[in-house]
Amino acid sequence: MAVEIFPEQYPSTSYASEVKECHQRITPASAYTLSSRIDSLPPEIHLKILMLLSRPDVDNCSLVCQRWKNTVTLNAHLLARHQIYSMRISERKGDFMLTIRTTEDFEKRWEFPKTVANAHPRKRILSTNEGIPMKQRKLSEIEQKNAQIFFAAHGSTLISSLIHELLQTEDQTNYKAKLHTPTDAFFRRFARCFQLADVKQLFFDEVRLTDGFVDFLDFLTQENTTFVCDELRLDFCKLKYITPSSFAKLFKIIRFSSCSMAYIRDNVGHILPSNEVSEALKTCQRLDLSNITDDVCFSEEYINSYMGNPTPMKTLRLDNCEITNIWLMSLVERWKTSAVSFSNICLNSGLISVMDLKKSLSRVTSSCSKEQLFLIEHSVEPKRSLKVWTDQQGVHLVEMCCSASQ
């Protein structure tokens, strides 16, 4: 016989109702009904649901069961992509490193050793029983000394010795180029990141670019892999082992909207104001070029061409250009009439006279602070103003979207 339980038997009526609700949630029949509702949906509906979710929710769904995981894996190209805020390629003495950062707290790094490092001939060491082992002289030094003795004795030229040295230098250059080219596993991982995620920033840090590096990327593009990022940064990179044509090809393979290059070495025709690389940089929304060796001097025509592109809110920084006070004042006048539009400009030139520039700015400015900060109002839109000042980096022109009274 069933026993009736009244609410008065519990400490309170609310406690009895909570127990009843909890009992209803864990009922096997209700749990089976809920699961059967999801399982009864066709796979097409599963895909429709996944396409409406964000990437973190999609990853959580892949942990539910093997069926959902297979659906996510097979339809990864239709679902929301991962977000990589920073991808860094760095080179150290023994290996290459690929580091990605998806959030402020999550960072993943892969290390790829250099396989050709062990193929280099080891240094010969003369082993003796007394004291520290002494390094034996290089074979080229011995041959050069023998050639000098032969030249002094016979008076013939050292053509064969010079040819040997040239061949040895060429072999050393080829070896260095192979040494600074990552392995196939590196490029596969690199391409995998671009296939599954949207990359915000691609960063080359102390990398020696080579022709083989560009050839590998070109091969991956033929396999329907696109390399697209918002910003491309090259810092402390060396261009000794890459030709200008391959360097220009790199800027065609990687598509970007902003570019920053600093402390670039061995620039021998790679970056010029009139070559393919500079033409590709004209379409950037943000362009920052500084400390490039050998120096690259950009003319007024190049800057005018960059200002003429339709990209809004342009940011430009050049540490070496051929601009004058007259050109700067004409730029200010064109900004006042909305002929050009930009957000932030910093230009450095040895042809600028700071004293004459300040006198010219004082005639068209609405106010000037004690720090020699000039504020120029827009002639058409009163809410826009231009701040101009000079420092060690050059002349700064920054547009402010507020009225001068504020």
UniProtKB/TrEMBL annotation:
Residues 35-82 form the F-box domain. InterPro entries: F-box-like_dom_sf, F-box_dom. This is F-box domain-containing protein. It comes from Gnathostoma spinigerum. The lineage of its organism: Eukaryota, Metazoa, Ecdysozoa, Nematoda, Chromadorea.
